[in-house]
Specification:
By secondary structure, the chain is α/β, with parallel strands linked by helices. It has seven helices and six strands. The chain has two domains: 154 residues, Ribosomal protein L4/L1 (Ribosomal Protein L4, Chain: A, 3-Layer(aba) Sandwich), CATH 3.40.1370; 41 residues, no CATH class. The longest helix has 17 residues.
């Protein structure tokens, strides 16, 4: 499919870019998307939760009462989970939630997400994103000129662009990533995907 290239003021230029069907127009695979997003969110979990079981509780180890003859259930420890202040049964412990996902599945998921964005007309191709200094005011003006000020916008640049990243950092809903770090979750989470013209070919080469 052909997409018109726009400038930072949101005006169409004379150029257009052909998006490869092998990346932006495949048969979407929803299960691959689900697995990739699940892995992305799982890897972001800290997994530092910790609960105290009966062996971790501080307190006396004496037997509370005699074994028989009280008319109640036997009780051997104040740390028993049945008592208030006792340990927790099968509580959470620190763990790593990340899991392995095949590269081909992740690649298919990104292609599927890009296909959905293309079908929704959610892809904008920008001719260039040159910022001489990190200025949020200039970045916000660009978003306003492109009618994207109130949308979740993901900018995809061909290589690391520190000024653009720092300029967008304080703007809610705006994010800047490089073509090689593009992931399924961020594609789907954005309302609009703004790809710098030079980044299109890089995305296609990575995913093909």
């Amino acid at each position: 499919m052909d997409v018109k290239v726009v400038d930072i003021k949101g005006k169409e230029t004379s150029k257009s870019v052909k998006l490869a069907d092998s990346v932006f127009a495949i048969e979407p695979n929803d299960h691959a998307i689900y697995l990739d997003v699940k892995q992305y969110l799982a890897a972001k979990r800290q997994g530092t939760h910790q609960s105290k079981e009966r062996g971790d509780i501080s307190g006396s180890t004496r037997k509370l009462k005699k074994q028989k003859g009280t008319g109640g259930a036997r009780a051997g420890s104040i740390k028993n989970p049945e008592f208030r202040g006792g340990g927790r049964v099968f509580g959470p412990h620190p763990r790593n939630y990340d899991f392995k996902l095949n590269v081909k599945v992740k690649r298919l998921a990104r292609k599927s997400a890009l296909t959905y964005k293309a079908k929704e007309n959610g892809i904008i191709v920008l001719n260039k994103l040159d910022m001489t200094a990190p200025k949020s005011k200039e970045f916000m003006k660009m978003l306003t000129d492109m009618n994207l000020a109130y949308d979740k916008v993901l900018f995809v640049v061909p290589a690391e662009n520190k000024n653009a990243y720092l300029s967008s950092r304080n703007i809610q809903g705006a994010n800047v990533v490089t073509a090689d770090s593009l992931n399924t979750y961020e594609i789907l989470n954005a309302n609009k995907l703004v790809i710098v013209e030079d980044a299109v070919s890089k995305i296609e080469s990575i995913l093909n």
